[in-house]
Amino acid sequence: MKHIAALQDLVTAASLDGEPSDAELDAIELEMPVIRAEVELLDAQIMTLDREVNELDERRIRRARRRVLAARRELTNRAGSGAVA
Questions:
Q1: φ, ψ at 21 (rounded to 5°)
Q2: How far apart are CA 42 and CA 44, in angstroms?
Q3: Any residues with CB less than 8 A from the CB of 28 and at least 6 apart, and which?
Q4: For 1-30, what is the mean pLDDT?
Q5: Cα–Cα distance measured from residue 74 to residue 64, given in angstroms and rounded to the nearest whole number
Q6: 8 A C-beta contact, residue 33 and residue 71
Q7: How far is the CA of 81 from the CAs of 4, 21, 24, 70, in angstroms?
Q8: Taking Cα atoms as reference points, which of 70, 25, 9 lies closest to residue 78?
Q9: How many Å apart are CA 47 and CA 54, to the nearest integer?
Q10: What is the C-alpha to C-alpha distance for residues 72 and 66, in angstroms, rounded to an integer?
Q11: Backbone dihedral region of 46: left (phi > 0), alpha (psi from -120 to 50 degrees) or beta?
C-alpha cells in the first residue's frame, strides 16, 4: 500500500519554496476589501465573547456583516463583468 503523505511531500515541497507570483499578489490585492471587512466582523464578534451583547454590539456586528456582504457583492460583480481595477 502506498502512503499518501509521502506522495504529497513531493508535490507540496516545491510549491512552498518560492515567493508569491505577481498574479497571486494581484488576486490578494483584489480581495483586500473583503478581507478587511471580514477582519472587522471578526473583531466585532470577538469583542462580545466574554460579555453580554448589548445594543451597540448588535449594531456593530450588523454593520460589519453588511460591509462583508457589500464587499463580496462588489468583488463578485467585478469578477462577473471582467473588469479589473
A1: -75, 170
A2: 5
A3: 20, 35
A4: 72
A5: 15
A6: yes
A7: 40, 24, 20, 16
A8: 70
A9: 11
A10: 10
A11: alpha
Q: What are phi and psi of 43, to 5 degrees?
A: -60, -45
CA dihedral 72, 77, 78, 79 (to 10 degrees): 90
Residue type for position 53: V
| Max Cα–Cα distance, the chain, nearest Å | 59
The SS3 call for residue 54 is coil
Torsion-angle region of residue 2: left (phi > 0), alpha (psi -120 to 50) or beta?
Answer: beta
CA 66 to chain centroid, in Å, comes to 15
> What pLDDT score was predicted for residue 20?
87
pLDDT tens for 27-83 read: 999 999 999 999 999 999 999 999 999 999 999 999 999 999 999 999 999 987 876
